[in-house]
């Protein structure tokens, strides 16, 4: 049986539930309707003994694959944040609940992470049991560019990267490729892009004894991703272990290396406030379980839009990048040195009592 909405296609083929994100013109950016369609399909398949595993991919502009998911629908977030649309609250609550379900699904969840995998696309793949990358994979959590933070469980999975890679990826929003994704624990195997269709079709056409057999068959197609591209691990671990965002930026600026200067220049373009918030997020999350991390991030995202009425860094960041496209956000404060520590700590104070938290039920 095939279920079709405009933006999500779901079908059980053989013993595998198959999901295709079908919003190629927007690089499969997640809408609230897409989050709801994904949640409904997964809840049904979780209880269906005939479904041994789930596979998810994105449609590109020329057909299946080529683009996984570029994140959440930031134009919707901008409009909803400006207008006070209550669906903004629904979007984040339901998206984070979906992320939690994927991490705790209990059956193989196979994500074909071809092309762009960013933001919300990481949220619907990082909880998978087989996270497949290709030579075309471009992976990032670039939220500080729009005055947000790496949410969708980003605190949880980035903080568990080796060394200080999590802090580096979270603060800079830098993009990595397939070999680095595997090396940093953000992917499980590499599959040449040209072989994805055959593996996808095979999943629906073969008979499997159990979920483990599905995963073993997929893994049998993995190939060498080639050498890692990030050659600055020692520098990342040194600078991004410093005590504060200000210390990191200033130390990078004080160094003479090309990588240090480029990284410092990139950080100077990010929201100064959110650099401090994000560093705190990653370091808190390192000792948290997933459910607690998602509750913390739900608190944080509420504050991103409403802590300072009329002064949302996120609304301003999206405006500059995607609405007016002037690429000149008016960050407040404008410099990382001028951020009030009390303002940073306010992001980690929940606006709800524990029993009334929108994600209270997650465990």
TrEMBL record:
<dbReference type="Pfam" id="PF16113">
    <property type="entry name" value="ECH_2"/>
</dbReference>
<dbReference type="GO" id="GO:0006574">
    <property type="term" value="P:L-valine catabolic process"/>
</dbReference>
<dbReference type="InterPro" id="IPR045004">
    <property type="entry name" value="ECH_dom"/>
</dbReference>
<keyword id="KW-0378">Hydrolase</keyword>
<dbReference type="InterPro" id="IPR032259">
    <property type="entry name" value="HIBYL-CoA-H"/>
</dbReference>
<dbReference type="InterPro" id="IPR029045">
    <property type="entry name" value="ClpP/crotonase-like_dom_sf"/>
</dbReference>
<dbReference type="GO" id="GO:0003860">
    <property type="term" value="F:3-hydroxyisobutyryl-CoA hydrolase activity"/>
</dbReference>
<feature type="domain" description="Enoyl-CoA hydratase/isomerase">
    <location>
        <begin position="16"/>
        <end position="348"/>
    </location>
</feature>
<protein>
    <submittedName>
        <fullName>Enoyl-CoA hydratase/carnithine racemase</fullName>
    </submittedName>
</protein>
